[in-house]
Amino acid sequence: MEPNYGDNLEPIAVIGMACRFAGDASSIEKFWEMMNSGSHGASPIPEDRFNADAWYHPNHERRGAV
Asked: Do the Cβ atoms of 23 and 39 come closer than 8 Å?
């Protein structure tokens, strides 16, 4: 069953959009090309962001470990 909005429909305009893309993609077109080619945007975590090694534990079944 479709929702009933009555006569309260008003036109809207999307006047802007912002995104952050993975990898080297700088536009939606480049992002699509990257995904379509089978590439990915994964990269190592920068060391200045946080200490990723602090989350490492040799037992991957340990809760909170990677």
From this structure: yes
5 pLDDT band (50/70/90 cuts)? Answer: low
Tell me how far apart the alpha carbons of residues 21 and 33 are, in angstroms, rounded to a whole number: 12
**All residues at 6 or more sequence positions from 66 whose CB lies less than 8 Å from its CB, including other chains:** 55, 56, 57, 60
User: Helix, strand or coil for residue 33?
Assistant: helix
The per-residue pLDDT for range 15-40, each reduced to its tens digit, is 887 888 888 888 889 988 998 999 88
For the whole model, what pTM was predicted?
Answer: 0.44
pLDDT of residue 65: 66
Q: Where are the domains of the chain?
A: 18-42
From 25, 47, 21, select the one nearest 34 (Cα to Cα). 25
Alpha helices in the chain (DSSP H): 28-36
